[in-house]
C-alpha cells in the first residue's frame, strides 16, 4: 500500500472522460459524472464519479451514502454507477463487471417523461484490455441503462440490460462505446416525426481509427458533430485529439440521413480530450466539458496522487464575424463557412467556443483585478513587465492589435527565467503555440510545443482581425482561448515555487501593438466543500483483482 501525498486540492483517483453532463430541471441542479478509479492513480476498474452544481461555478461531490460518516470527497463516496456481477443475455453474461465506460444522461424516465428520474446510458465492459490498435474481441462492450429516482443519490441498473448487445450491421469495429442520446426537435422535423423522439449515437469511424465520446447536435438550424479521434496521425498532431464538423443534412432514398461536412476543425488543439456536450436548458445554450490529461511522461504521478482534471465548461455557439473578405470556394471546406448577407457583405461563420461567460465571471469573484493602461509605447514587450507575483490560479487577457511577427505572453516565469512558458501567435504560419521547452527544470515532463492553427480573418476595409487571447492558468493546467473560436489546452509542471511571473513576449525585431491587458489573480475555488488535503489512500490491486494484471496495471 502507498499513501497519497496531495499537492493540490484535486482528489486521489483518476479523472479521465467527463460523462453525462446534464441539467435536471426538476431540482434545478447540474450533474457531471466522470470516469473514476478511486484510490488509484492509473486507469483500471473504472466507474462513474459524480458531482453537482447549482451554477456550473462551484461544485459539490455527491455523497451516495449519506448515512455513513465518510466525507463525500473521500474514497468511493462520490461513485454513482459502479461495476456489478449482474448477469444477462449478453455474451459474456457478466456485461459490466470490468468497467463502466463513458456515456450520456437525460433528465427523463424510461418512457421519456420528465418526472424527476435521471436516466444514464453507458457502456459496460465484459472483456479487457481493449484498444483501437488491438483486434476487437466480440462482446467486449455493450450499451446499458442506469437510472436514479432520488436526484442522483442512488442508482439502479435497468433489469433488461444491456439494451444493445451487438455492434450494428456486424461492423468490424475497433471500439463501440460512449453512447450519446438526445431529444432532437430539428431531426424530428426532417424525419416528419409527429411526437418527440430520442436519437442515439453509437460509435463511428474515420479521422482516426477509433471515435470516442461522439456527439451530435443542432444550433438553430445548423447541424454539428464532435468526436474524440484515436490513432489519427497528422504531422502536427499525433494520436488522440478532439474534432468537430458542421454538415448539411439530407434524407437518402432509403430514409437514412446523410451528413455532408461543410466546415470543421479541432475542438481543442492541445491535449483536451473526450469532450462531451449537453443542452443547458436553463440558459438555452450548449455547454462542452473536456478532460485535461496529464502530460508527465509517467513521472511523479504517485507523488501527485491523482491524474486528470476538467477544463472550464465551454459554451459553443454560432460565431459570425461580419465584413470579412471571403475565401475562394475553390479552397474547399475550412474552419469557417463564408455566408453572404443581403447587402453583399460577407460573414465568416464557424463553431464558436469560449469559457462560459457566467462561469468566468463567477470564478473572478474575490480576485485581484488589474487593468493595465496601455498606450503603444508603454505596452512594448521589452519595457513592460505585467506582474511578477501571481498565485497559482489566474486569468491573463491580452489583445494583439497588430504584429509583424511572433508575439504573445510569457507565463510561469521564475525571477531569472530559469523556467518560463511562451504563448504566442505566429502570423507567418497562422498558428498559436504554447512553447514548453523551458516550462520546467524537471526535464522528465513533456516539453514539446502545442501548436494550433489560427488564421485571422481579413476585413473588407483592409485590416486584419486582432488576436484576443484569454489565458486561464490553474496549477499545471493552461487553457488558451483566442477570438471566441480557438481553444488549446496544455500542461506545465513548474519545479520552482517562484515561477509566478508573467510578462509580454515577442520575438526579437518584431513590431507589435498590444492593448487590453488585464489580469484576474486568485480565481475562486470551484470545490469549496473539499478540504485543502483531500487525499485518499492509494491501493495496489492483487493479481486476482486484475486478471493477473492483464485487465489493468493495478496501481
Ligand atoms: C471495482 O469497482 C467496483 C465498484 O464499481 C467494486 O465493487 C469492485 O470490488 C471493484 N473491483 C476491484 C477488483 O477492485
Ligand atoms: C465480482 O466477483 C468477483 C469474484 O467474487 C469479485 O472479486 C469482484 O469484486 C466482484 N465484482 C463486483 C463489481 O462486485
Ligand atoms: C414517465 O413520466 C411520465 C410523466 O412525465 C409518466 O406519465 C410516465 O408514466 C413515466 N414513465 C415511467 C416508465 O415511469
Ligand atoms: C477487422 O479489422 C481488422 C483491422 O482492420 C483486421 O485485421 C481484421 O482482419 C478484420 N476482421 C474481419 C473479420 O474482417
Ligand atoms: C417529410 O415530408 C415532406 C413533405 O411532406 C416530404 O417531402 C419528405 O420527403 C418527408 N421526409 C421523410 C424523411 O419522409
Ligand atoms: C505519423 O505520420 C508521419 C508522417 O506525416 C510519419 O512520419 C510518422 O511515422 C507517423 N507516426 C505514427 C505513430 O504513425
Ligand atoms: C441507406 O443508404 C446508405 C447509403 O447508400 C447506406 O450506407 C445505409 O447503410 C443504408 N441504410 C439502410 C438502413 O439500409
Ligand atoms: C452575419 O453576422 C451578423 C452578426 O454579426 C448576423 O446578425 C447576421 O445574421 C449574419 N448574416 C447571416 C447571413 O448569417
Ligand atoms: C509574492 O507574494 C507573496 C505572498 O503574498 C509574498 O510573500 C512575496 O514576498 C511576494 N514576492 C514578491 C517578489 O513580490
Ligand atoms: C520554443 O522556444 C525555444 C526557446 O525558448 C526555441 O528554441 C524553440 O525553437 C521553440 N520551439 C518551437 C517549436 O517554436
Ligand atoms: C525535453 O524532453 C526531453 C525528453 O522528452 C529531454 O531529453 C530534454 O532534455 C528536455 N528538454 C529540456 C530543455 O528540458
Ligand atoms: C496468474 O498467473 C499465475 C502464474 O502464471 C497462475 O498460477 C494463476 O492461476 C493466475 N491467476 C489468475 C487469476 O489468472
From TrEMBL:
Record bears the keyword Hydrolase: yes
Glycosyl hydrolase family 32 C-terminal domain ranges (all copies): 361-521
Glycosyl hydrolase family 32 N-terminal domain span: 14-182, 189-321
Keywords for the protein's UniProt record, in alphabetical order: Glycosidase, Hydrolase, Signal
Gene Ontology molecular-function annotations: sucrose alpha-glucosidase activity
Keyword Membrane set for record: no
SMART domains to which the protein is assigned, alphabetical: Glyco_32
SUPFAM superfamilies recorded: Arabinanase/levansucrase/invertase, Concanavalin A-like lectins/glucanases
Gene Ontology CC, one term: cytoplasm
Pfam family, one: Glyco_hydro_32N
Matching InterPro entries: ConA-like_dom_sf, Glyco_hydro_32, Glyco_hydro_32_C, Glyco_hydro_32_N, Glyco_hydro_beta-prop_sf
Biological processes annotated in GO: sucrose catabolic process
Signal peptide (UniProt feature, chain positions): 1-16
Family annotation (Gene3D superfamilies): Exo-inulinase, domain 1 (2.60.120.560), Glycosyl hydrolase domain, family 43 (2.115.10.20)
Annotated PANTHER family: EXOINULINASE INUD (AFU_ORTHOLOGUE AFUA_5G00480), GLYCOSYL HYDROLASE FAMILY 32 N-TERMINAL DOMAIN-CONTAINING PROTEIN
Similarity annotation: Belongs to the glycosyl hydrolase 32 family.
Name of this protein: Glycoside hydrolase family 32 protein
